[in-house]
Write a structure and sequence with these properties.
Chain B: Its main location: membrane. The complex is a heterodimer of chains A (about 600) and B (about 575). Chain A is mainly alpha-helical and about 600 residues long. Helix content of chain A is about 65%, strand content about 5%. Chain A folds into 2 domains: about 400 residues, Up-down Bundle (Na+/H+ antiporter like fold), CATH 1.20.1530; about 160 residues, Rossmann fold, CATH 3.40.50.720. The chains are: A mainly alpha (about 600), B mainly alpha (about 575).
């Protein structure tokens, strides 16, 4: 078993990162900070027990590739279409202005020419993981400022991908070299990009429709897709991570992307931890980190303030109101984790020394740390400063309203229980969102075009967020899995009406305890009904015949409705194969073998 | 260096992805296809380099980790009760035969430690795969069919046996002392896992303050700590991973997220593991092929026969026994783990290793193909063999007096019990047909007339005096059974249960008098309850009180499930 010893470095990183992560959690710091600190502590700066070679390097690389894949997966054009023009303007302006600012600051602080260029390109503001994580925790990711930030970050990411590609290109001599490298990169990227868009239109929908129901195959094929692009990019001498990003984009446009995001996120979390730790590992000792300590502090302050005003000016210019502009800007005042990536790459290319990476790292640590608290208290800060910021108020604010579900009804699982309730729910709550994990159900909903739907397993966080479970006024779950229903009851708003299904009486009691409004028990219901019919049969044959006829007509009517709803979707085999367990399809040998034949 | 590793992983995943598409197309488990992907990817030498093998070992660790997380210790006893006789019988009967054959092979190949290699051969024969079996039996387990329950109990039993074997086989030199030390350490590890389950894990959850990512990373840290501990005292990492899985709580509010996380990471590494296993196989020689096919035949033929006989002996009807037995005919993924660990320790001969892997891939695919023909095999072979015995068995375990104008109730679950209650109240004669011998005591105590037998066969209906019945009421939602009931030669009216309105419509057209669809009933009740709530005719408090009264009533009359699993 000596082989595992090879992985010891990696094992130490994970364990130490957990401990520091738990401590960081107590102080409200984001986990990223904890991971970078882990690297600093384990690396040359402090104990020097771990090196970033072999498996650690592989895992860090995988982490980064998965992060970009995940980022690509989040790039759904339709999510930001309404505000896309404004966002593009903001992102473009922001990229140019803050690079200029970073350039000026670096010049003023007296770095060398090559270092200044690297610093200017590497100092990008807006750390996607931090902003997304904290805003999601605060439930503000779907608010207007949140959407603007996410939009800007996405556009920025495209810029970063180009910068990264530039840095990974092998030789950069003069301006002509840079131009030709850039040209090759752009051609290659557009080639792969066009292939990814082409496949997202013509290849992937059919492919994933077949496999989306099988969660293991679904994940492995998606990962294979990412690796395919990675290999192609590697073959074309591009940064393989660019390939991962483009693979993500091509999958993002599919209706199954939310579900996929939820399955890729943990893998990313796992590897990215190693990645952030290796950033810390790369700092060549405490002297590097503190080599430019006062410059880093000065630059942090200047850039945070400067970048806030750049963003504020740009967002305000697009005609959003002051509060939106303020919040959208103040969320973005930290150096992106990409600075460190670009910095690390620049070290590989011997463009800068470890001291400059130390400068970038210190700046990232400082701004990320401070901004965590700023984002957490962004509303409180705005309230304090509101009177002063009022002066920027203009009359023609054009706040684009972003559609999110609110006070709506959610149905979990599209089966005969929920189906019959949907029209009534639509009448009462206006908007109905169905969550289902089966492609044929989702297709049926799409054909009908009447109700909104989210493809995915209700167990997954992203899926619940997409349907805005917290804002729902009515939730109906046709899953009989107690853990699913308990998670549901945990998350819904206090005053929401919640109907859930249960198979066992003990489960039903527990669900009532946790606040369910009503627990449906279809087996017991059927038992009542059938025994009632048996009684009628024995005691009053006429009444039995009448009741039976009535039910037969009801079933006939239901079938007709179903066939009307789905023209080409017939056949007893595939129609309604699902039952209450639709939402959670993983029935494996691992589960307690349950029940008996006759029920 | 890293670039090459990334490319290697790309090769691993792209071949695995392509072949899993094939598996998906035919509705098969992807696992044998990962192994086949490995056989293909093995032509790239880089796939078997040290780093990839380390990743594959992580796959093993996560596989066992997840297995242990999912064990519900409260349920352990009742799960194992189903399986113990059949599983133990199979071990006692099959293991010596396999050991003998394996020993002969090992000696004829001239390997250095024939007995040990024979043991590896035996594990491959005896153990069956819960991962593959779970896919094979997917719908049976979902529909709560008896044979699905039986088979998955055996799978579970086999997995536990495998963990025990790994504990013993991870010593390089097998002596009584070494084994005792291994078992001692193993027990200590599991106890440590249980302690963390009780005291450590809740602290982790509290400190994470609801942050799922931290609980996830913390869980993996626990895994790493246990693996490191296991390595330190010279145990198999599998034992460490098992104990770590014991330590993880899978209840609580963040558990969905954490389990989803662990599952996704597991899927990632497990794919690497199976592909690597396949890649480690060399181009097989004739000896290897002979050994692999012998192994496959033993698994595909001898295992099911022994299982079927012991199930029948336990009192299950021939069909249930056959269906359960025939889904236990594949090599276990644990046999692969045992084999690869042995390979890393250098205690298994290459030929034996190759044969086990090849036989595993072959049986995992064949078990699915076997499903397609099992009904035919049953009708033409098994049913004939057991016919005489079957009627005698049904006679032995049934209790029917002379009946006329009676109701035949199929199934004695919750619905069946409710109907019997009603019929008892009305004084109407009835007979229950049920195939689960676990319910025999209950039937005996509570039903006037019952037949313990397979409602898909002919004789139990004869025994239930169908010719004189006035009503047949099937409470089982299983299409083949519903069709059998409709095909019966009888004038009796037929009440059935179906999954969907569509199916109900078809059954009505086929001649059913009435078909109950629980989901439709629930849907109707749902709509009317919501309307009542909206109109202010009732409120949540009242609803809850009414339901609780109803539950109390159900429990008083014994309609609630006394045994959680029935």
């Amino acid at each position: 078993m000596s082989e595992i010893a090879l992985a010891a470095d990696f094992a130490i990183i994970v364990v130490v990162a957990t401990i520091i992560g738990l401590i960081a959690r107590q102080t409200g710091q984001p986990t990223i900070i904890a991971y970078i600190l882990t690297g600093i502590i384990l690396g040359p700066v402090a104990f020097d027990v771990v090196t970033d070679e072999g498996l650690v390097e592989l895992m860090a690389d995988l982490g980064f590739a998965f992060l970009l894949f995940l980022l690509g997966l989040k790039m759904r054009f339709e999510d930001i279409r309404e505000i896309l023009p404004s966002v593009t303007n903001v992102a473009f302006g922001q990229t140019v202005l803050q690079t200029a600012l970073a350039f000026l600051v670096a010049v003023a602080l007296g770095f060398e020419t090559q270092e200044i260029l690297v610093i200017a390109l590497a100092t990008v503001f807006g750390a996607t993981p931090i902003i997304v994580k904290i805003l999601t925790d605060k439930d503000e990711i779907t608010s207007l400022p949140g959407k603007i930030d996410v939009g800007v970050l996405i556009v920025q990411d495209i810029y970063l991908v180009i910068v990264l590609a530039l840095f990974t290109a092998d030789e950069l001599g003069g301006a002509a070299d840079i131009a030709s490298t850039l040209g090759v990169i752009l051609v290659m990227m557009s080639f792969i990009g066009i292939f990814s868009l082409f496949s997202s239109r013509y290849i992937l929908p059919g492919l994933f429709r077949r496999i989306a129901d099988n969660k293991d195959v679904f994940l492995i094929v998606a990962i294979a897709w990412a690796f395919l692009f990675v290999a192609v990019a590697e073959g074309a001498n591009l940064d393989p991570k660019v390939g991962a990003f483009l693979a993500g984009i091509s999958l993002a446009q599919l209706p199954y992307s939310k579900e996929l995001e939820d399955r890729i996120t943990p893998i990313t979390d796992f590897f990215i931890l190693v990645f952030f730790a290796t950033i810390g590992l790369q700092i060549d000792g405490l002297s590097s980190l503190l080599a430019y300590w006062w410059q880093a502090i000065v630059a942090s302050i200047v850039l945070m303030v400067g970048n806030f005003w750049i963003m504020f000016y740009l967002i305000d210019r697009e005609g959003f109101d002051v509060e939106t502009s303020f919040l959208g800007s103040i969320n973005m005042v930290q150096v992106s984790e990409f600075s460190l990536i670009v910095g690390a790459l620049a070290i590989d290319q011997e463009l800068i020394g470890p001291d400059v990476l130390g400068y970038l790292s210190l700046m990232a640590l400082l701004t990320m740390g401070v901004s965590t608290y700023i984002i957490a208290y962004n509303h409180a800060i705005y309230e304090r400063l509101e009177p002063w910021f009022r002066r920027f108020e203009s009359d023609d604010t054009t706040d684009a309203e972003i559609g999110t579900y609110e006070d709506h009804a959610i149905a979990i699982g599209y089966d005969e229980i929920t189906e019959s309730a949907l029209p009534m729910l639509e009448r009462k709550y206006g908007e109905v969102v169905v969550i289902d994990r089966q492609t044929d159900h989702v297709e049926k909903l799409e054909r009908e075009g009447r109700y909104e739907y989210v493809f995915g397993d209700f167990r997954h966080t992203e899926v619940r967020k997409e349907a805005n479970l917290k804002g729902a006024a009515f939730v109906l779950s046709s899953s009989v899995e107690r853990e699913v229903n308990e998670a549901l009851l945990e998350e819904v708003a206090e005053d929401a009406t919640v109907f859930v299904e249960a198979e066992r009486i003990t489960d039903a009691r527990a669900l009532y305890d946790r606040g369910a409004t009503y627990v449906i028990m279809s087996t017991h219901l059927a038992a009542e009904k059938i025994s009632e019919y048996v009684e009628l049969y024995v005691t009053d044959r006429e009444a039995f015949d009448e009741a039976v006829d009535r039910d037969a007509n009801g079933i006939e009517a239901r079938r007709r409705r179903a066939t009307l709803g789905s023209d080409d979707h017939g056949g007893a085999d595939d129609a309604e194969a699902g039952d209450g367990s639709d939402v959670a399809t993983d029935v494996g040998s691992d589960e307690t073998p349950g029940g008996e034949t006759h029920d | 260096m890293t670039e090459q590793l990334v490319i290697t992983l790309a090769v691993v995943f792209v071949t695995a992805g392509l072949l899993s598409l094939v598996a998906n197309h035919f509705g098969l488990s992807p696992i044998p296809f990962y192994i086949i992907a490995g056989l293909i990817a093995g032509t790239f030498e880089s796939v078997t380099q040290a780093e990839i093998i380390v990743l594959a070992q992580w796959g093993i660790a996560f596989l066992v980790f997840v297995f242990a997380i999912r064990i519900d210790f409260g349920d352990l006893e009742s799960v194992l009760r189903d399986a113990e006789i059949a599983a133990v019988t199979q071990l006692i009967v099959v293991a010596p035969i396999a050991l003998g054959i394996g020993y002969l092979f090992a000696v004829s190949l001239g390997v250095s430690d024939p007995l040990r290699n024979a043991v590896y051969f035996t594990t491959a024969v005896v153990l069956s795969s819960s991962l593959v079996g779970g896919v094979v039996l997917g719908s049976e387990i979902r529909d709560n069919l008896v044979h699905g329950r039986l088979a998955s109990s055996i799978h579970f039993f086999d997995d536990l046996v495998a963990i025990g074997l790994l504990l013993i086989l991870s010593t390089e030199v097998v002596t009584a002392d070494a084994i005792a030390a291994q078992i001692g350490y193993g027990v200590l590890f599991v106890v440590a896992g249980l302690l963390i389950y009780r005291h450590g894990f809740p602290i982790l959850v509290r400190l994470s303050e609801g942050d799922g990512e931290l609980v996830l990373v913390g869980s993996i840290s626990i895994l790493i700590a246990f693996i490191a501990g296991a390595e330190f005292v010279g145990l198999s990492i599998v034992v460490g991973a098992f104990a770590a899985g014991v330590a993880i709580r899978s209840d609580g509010t963040q558990s969905l997220e954490v389990r989803n996380g662990i599952d996704a990471i597991t899927d990632f590494f497990v794919a690497i593991f199976f592909v690597t296993v396949g890649a480690l196989v060399a181009i097989p020689s004739i000896e290897v092929l002979v050994m692999a096919s012998t192994l496959a035949v033993l698994v595909l033929v001898m295992n099911p026969i022994v299982h079927v006989l012991s199930f029948v002996y336990e009192g299950y009807d021939a069909r249930t026994a056959f269906l359960a037995g025939s889904s236990l005919n594949q090599v276990s993924e644990f046999a692969l783990i045992i084999a690869i660990q042995a390979l890393l320790m250098g205690t298994i001969a290459d030929a034996v290793f190759d044969a086990i892997i090849l036989a595993a891939a072959a049986t995992m695919v064949l078990t699915f193909l076997g499903r397609r023909v099992e009904d035919t095999v049953y009708e033409y072979v098994v049913a004939r063999i057991f016919r005489r015995r079957r009627t005698r068995k049904v006679d032995d375990r049934s209790n029917v007096s002379d009946l006329a104008d009676h109701v035949v109730v199929v199934g004695y679950g919750r619905i069946g019990r409710r109907i019997v209650e009603t019929l008892e109240e009305l004084g109407q004669p009835y007979v229950v047909i049920e195939n689960d011998p676990v319910l025999w005591d209950e039937l005996n105590a509570e039903c006037r007339n019952y037949v313990l037998g397979d409602a898909l066969a002919v004789y139990p209906w004869e025994k239930a005096q169908l010719a004189d019945a006035t009503l047949v009421c099937s409470t089982v939602d299983h299409r083949p059974l519903s069709e059998t009931v409709l095909d019966l030669e009888t004038d009796a009216d037929v009440l059935l249960r179906a999954e969907s309105a569509d199916e109900a419509g078809e059954l009505l057209e086929a001649g059913a008098t009435h078909v109950a669809v629980p989901n439709v009933l629930a849907g109707e009740q749902l709509v009317s309850t919501v309307e009542e709530l909206a109109a202010g005719e009732t409120d949540a408090k009242t609803l809850e009180r009414e339901q609780f009264d109803y539950f109390d009533a159900l429990e008083r009359y014994g309609f609630a499930s006394r045994d959680e699993r029935i």
